[in-house]
């Protein structure tokens, strides 16, 4: 196929990205603010290479496969349409593949589907969108996949917003010298195609949420001491969704219920246990799978075994809610639920085979980034005012830890973020079965 099929013009591109069309670095890192046009540029570059080069199979990755259809898949389709080359491509929306007439292919996969991912052979290029969602281990596994001979250069393109200065992306690409790596920072000011509404929204952040403005407008790394969750959207939750609980007759007055269980509705329960010493709260939250909070039980000075048994009682009331437990402090809770109470719907880790979810320095930034996105997109409805107050003081400390400001608690924040991990791991929990292992 001749390269004359597509004649590139500088006017098709933002100035900052034009030199990257010919960049052949092993790692091409594009980061910065929202609406900078970086994702669309990558779509343009991939479509261009698919058209003018040969023997290509590009793999486009996000952490969760279900998020691909309305994000990067649409970006690739838009690039094809803008260049009027639709006749050169076959788009399979069901299989999420795009095939060029010359035999080159673009394949879209989520890291949450490891079996199908491992079946893909002959990958010659990779784009990792929203790379802050994935772990360093995920990245290194993908890097190993990009091997073998090909007359054209092989490249991994990484795109993300710099939400956390303690994220592995910073230490891996920025804090050391890495061979064959190009790094480009961009913001909405670099995007000549940005729409007026987005422009105004980002500029408004300067007054309404300076922390958000630093990351999503200026493209700067999230810094120590800054609130990690978007305050303007927390205030929006307070205005639209927070409410007083229903009257309740129970031995534990700390239980707050906003909606009684409904038959045949699927519920998800998230549990963040404490040491049971009174310093932190045990927290149980129950949500609908659509993201509406219906219950919260936050209590301290309660022995863990009593808390676990009360969780069992409440979760069974909500149709045997699917339960995810943080296992950092939750071994006793999990032991009681599984062995004593024989609770039927427990989250098991696909990677370790262990019950529960482990919060680590690797997973925590992803959890908080997902919670931030959920607040910004208003895909959850937080009823608990106490939970929203905890979100306002969830910061990065000088030691790099992501946690509550001194004198505050963050147990409800962790419980809310655990709920999102359950939803993400199961692709919305559609059709889950009892004790399915992740």
Characterization of this structure:
The chain is an alpha/beta fold and 438 residues long. It has 2 domains: 13-217, 3-Layer(aba) Sandwich (Rossmann fold); 231-425, Nucleotidyltransferase, domain 5, CATH 3.30.420. 32% of the residues lie in helices and 17% in strands. The protein is built from 13 helices and 15 strands. The protein has helices at 38-52, 72-82, 114-118, 136-145, 168-174, 196-208, 210-217, 231-240, 304-317, 331-340, 363-377, 385-392, 411-425; strands at 27-32, 57-62, 89-92, 97-100, 105-110, 125-128, 155-160, 181-186, 255-257, 267-272, 282-288, 293-299, 322-325, 394-396, 402-404. Strands 3-4-5-2-6-7-1-8 form an 8-stranded mixed sheet. It has a 5-stranded mixed sheet with strand order 9-12-11-10-13. Strands 14-15 form a two-stranded antiparallel sheet. Strand 14 (394-396) and strand 15 (402-404) form a beta hairpin. Helix 6 (196-208) packs across helix 7, helix 9 packs across helix 10 and helix 11 (363-377) crosses helix 13. The longest helix has 15 residues, at 38-52. It is globular, with a radius of gyration of 23 Å.
Task: Give the ordered list of helices and strands.
Answer: EHEHEEEHEHEHEHHHEEEEHEHHHEEH
- What is the residue-mean pLDDT, rounded to a whole number? 89
User: How are the strands ordered across the major sheet?
Assistant: 3-4-5-2-6-7-1-8
What is the CATH T-level topology of the largest domain?
A: Rossmann fold
How large is the share of residues in beta strands? 15-25%
Shape: globular
**Helix proportion of residues, in percent?**
25-40%
Number of strands: 15
